[in-house]
Amino acid sequence: MVTVTLTHAGDVAVITIDNPPINATSHSVRAGLVNAVDQIEQDASLKAAILICEGKTFIAGADVTEFGQPAQDPILPDVIKRLEASPKPIIAAIHGHALGGGLEVALGCHYRIADISAKLGLPEVTLGLIPGAGGTVRLPRLISTENAVSMITSGKPVFASAANEMGLIDAITHGALIDAAKDFAKTILDQPCPTPLVDRVPVDALNNDQWQETLASVAKKARGQIAPQIAATAIRTGIEKGAAAGLMHEREKFIELRDSDQSKALRHIFFAERSVAKLPDIDGVKPNSLNEIGVIGGGIMGAGIATASLLAGFDVKIIERTEDACASGKATVEKHLAGSLKRGLITQDRFDGLIASLSTSMDYADLGNADLVVEAVFEDMSVKHDVFGKLSAQCKPDAVLASNTSYLDINEIAAKCVNPQRVIGLHFFSPAHIMKLLEVVRTNKANAKSLATAFAFARKLGKIAVPCGVCDGFIGNRIMSAYRKHCEYMLEDGALPHQIDNAMVAFGFPMGLFAMQDMAGLEISWAARKRRAPFRDPSERYVALGDYLCEMGRFGKKNGFGWYRYDENGKALPDPNVDALVIAESTKKGITRRNFTDDEIIETILSAMQREGDKILAEGIANSPDAIDVVMINGYGFPRHKGGPMFWQA
Ligand code: NAD
Is the pLDDT of residue 489 over 90? Predict the structure, then answer.
């Protein structure tokens, strides 16, 4: 297949890559590029070249079908050397994304111009790798070490405007990219070809202390992931030992990391996230068109869901109970959007437009045009029934009606609705406008059209949608309940809250279970436990420590005391009073306390997750172990580089 073509525009050559969908650096592209540069060099009528891509993007990464295959010549590092060695300047004209090998190709060119909406990045660390085609060596010869370290070790792409400010690109364009590239070419035709990056000195140098500081900060952010630190060391090697040594070191480390457990885990989750929403029975089913979204309840979740829907381009109507609640819901949405404005994610014009697309009401009759409605009212079955009764009466017969309930039986909610086949669950995570995960809950009667519409909605919101069945807590909360129980057992058996939390943090969780409970507040789950108390199986082991804390008025971080006590800066400190309470409870129950090592704590938590995961699979609640991994990583802080509880092996 021909993926690279060469045309002439006067004395400028235009090399065009056309390798959909992402113009990956497949073998045919690599070979085509070398061939094109050879031809340009030999053609005396040509003075410079433009490298541009067809379709939606510049080169946005490697060809995943070549993963795990033996490398076929020419390999990417050699292709980039060839571009760089061209005596005639090559201008990379970037639109869409220049990612990974794509940005490394652009770094091999002599100039880079980019469309205003383009994004550039080296995301290899997100797959447990480092750039393998010179990125760690060339980037700090173009931009400051600090910026290079930040881009490479975070893996986060930057917008064209930021790239321009840091010197990564030479110009930003607003109009047709090819015309801008041709205009740019005219300005450099009579200038000598710039020195290739590998032959330049690094932009700046850090001293030993600065490097130690940088490496420590990278390690802290990486939370156990090895690739970011190896990437930072590769950058340092390229700067301090020269480009040739740097390139060799980088390639060696890249190959080593490719076979590492962490990279395997990160690649596993990368592919799992992209396949998990694919359901054969809705394949080809046309979703309803979506323009207006209704949100019932403007509380924490409702306001977040409304914000996410506005940002995805929908008109949104929030229904609340009182004028004050309407105003408060609207104010929360405005606060979220103001945050996006402040961070530069949206412009003032867009902000104004989004606010204009939001309305509130106390009258369900105003939902007559809504195509999909998400209910986010109090977690109480009678309130949910009341709301769905009104929605059944007032919404279009084919409007999809979704509940954001955390635990309630959505089949029971659907049973009392007109057209129950359009009732589903959409379980968002807090904050709903930020968290990527969305559990799409399939009720017994849900039809393919409603499900297809729900997945289309999720896609528009940019969420990772995981299909699941109805059960107490769906996938995530159910697994969380199971491992929480085992953490509580460990308290009575000999561990202390901070010990369990420390082991979890050392494993890679952002925080431990007890610190997380303190942050969420202990009184809500206390109320739920009190409600469920009459129905509890008396033979089941019950740990009452959380109840005792609430009885003592320790509701968590917000009032300074919970599983921890909090200093005036909000820092959690182990509390000897809580330790004493835990130890006294063991004594009361006649349990001889024993020591738990960190490994044992993790083993206990992980096997509880896996056992519950197996049950969830056996009951058909999750479609695959991958679905469980995706949920726990994206909603519950499970460390991504461990691949998820079902992938993980001790
Ligand atoms: P919240 O108390 O912050 O908000 C609930 C809102 O619903 C209130 O503003 C209330 O005025 C409104 N409301 C109550 N009855 C109503 C009615 N009949 N009509 C219109 N509005 C009504 O609660 P929340 O935390 O946003 O939770 C809402 C739902 O989302 C619950 O089912 C909860 O289980 C679920 N959920 C919560 C979280 C979370 O982290 N908070 C996460 C996932 C799911």
Answer: yes
Closest atom of ligand 1 to CA, residue 375: 29
Q: Which of 318, 375, 377, 380 to mutate to test the pocket of ligand 1 (most atoms within 8 A of CB)?
A: 377
CATH class of 4-259: alpha beta
pTM for the model stands at 0.91
Q: How far is the CA of 627 from the centre of ligand 1 (A)?
A: 26
> Is residue 474 within 8 Å of residue 441, measured between CB atoms?
yes
Residue 525's pLDDT is 84
The SS3 call for residue 51 is strand
Nearest CA to ligand 1 atom 4: 299
Active site residues: 104, 124
Nearest CA to ligand 1 atom 20: 320
Give domain 280-468's CATH architecture.
Answer: 3-Layer(aba) Sandwich (3.40)
The helices-and-strands tally (H runs, E runs) of the chain is 25, 19
Across 278-282, 320-324, 429-433, 462-466, least confident range? 278-282
519-528 in b/e burial notation, b at 16+ Cβ within 10 A? Answer: eebbbebbee
Separation of 494 CA from ligand 1 center, angstroms? Answer: 38
Beta pairing, strands 564-566 & 572-574:
antiparallel
Tens digits of residue pLDDT in 583-604: 999 999 999 999 999 999 999 9
| Site of tokens 């349990």 | 591
Please give the structure tokens belonging to residue 288.
Answer: 């309803």
Closest CA to 248 of 403, 110, 136: 136
Torsion (CA) 466, 469, 471, 476 in degrees, nearest 10: -10
Domain spans of the chain, in order of start: 4-259, 280-468, 476-620
Q: How does pLDDT run across 619-649, given as a tens digit for each residue?
A: 999 999 999 999 999 999 999 999 999 999 8
Query: Residue 461: its pLDDT value, please?
Result: 98
Q: Please name the fold of domain 476-620.
A: N-(1-d-carboxylethyl)-l-norvaline Dehydrogenase; domain 2 (1.10.1040)
Task: Identify the helix (H) or strand (E) that includes residue 196.
Answer: none
Q: Per residue in 20-59, is it b (16+ CB within 10 Å) or e — as a string?
A: eebbbbbbebbbbbbebbeebeeeeebbbbbbbbeeebbb
Please state, as a whole number, how many other Cβ atoms lie within 10 Å of the Cβ of residue 219: 16
